[in-house]
UniProtKB/TrEMBL annotation:
SUPFAM superfamilies reported for this sequence: F-box domain
Stretches assigned to the F-box domain: 49-80
Name of the molecule in the record: F-box domain-containing protein
A Pfam family assignment: F-box-like
InterPro entries: F-box-like_dom_sf, F-box_dom
Length: 85
């Protein structure tokens, strides 16, 4: 384990646990795409940005318009949502 003087020593066990949960998860095969890690920080979330654009577009097509607008949180998702109308 490392020690950074800017980090409170009581935070180190939590940070180490979060690092292990994030990087020590198996990958999952999605269609014809390379393996993508679909586990979030706590193992119960699916980071949508790890998915291919086509799959994100398919997910957006299932959302009502109000939720689609809420999903436009960055340039990539904004562009995908704009094309999937």
């Amino acid at each position: 384990m490392f020690h950074d003087p800017g980090i409170n020593i009581t935070q180190l066990p939590v940070m180490e646990q979060m690092r292990q949960m994030t990087f020590n998860r198996p990958s999952t095969q999605i269609g014809n795409y390379n393996q993508v890690n679909v586990y979030g920080l706590y193992g119960d979330q699916c980071p949508i940005l790890g998915l291919p654009n086509e799959l994100i577009s398919a997910i957006f097509s299932l959302l009502p318009p109000k939720d689609r607008l809420r999903a436009r949180v960055n340039k990539r998702l904004n562009a995908i949502e704009a094309k999937s109308k």
